[in-house]
Amino acid sequence: MVAKHISLGVILAALLAFGAAKNALAEETVLKVSGDVDSDAPISFSDADLAALPTITFETGTIWSEGIKTFSGPSLGSVLEAAGAGPGELRLVAANDYKVSLPKNVIEDQYPIIANRINGKPFGIRDKGPLWVVFPYDSKPAFQSELIYAYSIWQLTEIEILKE
Question: Radius of gyration of the chain from Cα atoms?
């Protein structure tokens, strides 16, 4: 009976550790917004912070993946609003230090989104995550241009708001 009790204790401890690790990931910074924002320091967003913003969901294909996928996450505009971003152009930075400038006039209410879910699930670095700037490419030809594709940065880690 003691062996069963120890095994149950080990299983319980493992489950508690898994739960704590999962909660830690939800609180870990996945996106930093810096530059012309409402704070002297960069503003950090965890996955939970992003999930607390209004979520936009759409289906679209991409030139980087196979088939139609369901992308969801907050709009880039809502993240900028939450950070108190100034009116300047954006510099988007990826985990591999890829950078792209994005003018504010590209941003609409519903797009692009900062996708943090594909087909309803979080996705990792190997799948272009955990954050990917996504437009509804299939919704109109204007979203199927080299410029829009260049703005569609994956493995997004930072947004810098440049001063005008």
Answer: 19
In this structure, the number of other CB atoms found within 10 A of the CB of residue 54 comes to: 7
Predicted confidence at residue 39, as pLDDT, reads: 87
Q: What's the whole-model pTM score?
A: 0.82
* Domains, the chain: 30-161 (3.90.420.10)
Amino acid identity of residue 80, one-letter, is L
Token readout for 12 is: 């319980």
CB atoms within 10 A of CB 157: 17
Q: In whole angstroms, what is the distance from residue 105 CA to residue 91 CA? A: 14
| pLDDT, tens only, 15-30 | 444 444 344 445 799 9
pLDDT tens per residue, range 45-73 = 999 999 999 999 999 999 999 999 999 99
> Which helix (H) or strand (E) element contains residue 79?
helix 76-83
On the 0-12 / 13-18 / 19+ scale of CB atoms within 10 A, 69 is: middle
Identify the H or E element spanning 20.
Answer: helix 2-27
**Residues 156/94, Cβ–Cβ less than 8 Å:** yes
Count other Cβ atoms within 10 Å, centred on residue 68: 11
| Residue carrying structure tokens 């900028």 | 80
CA–CA dist 20, 25 (Å, integer): 9
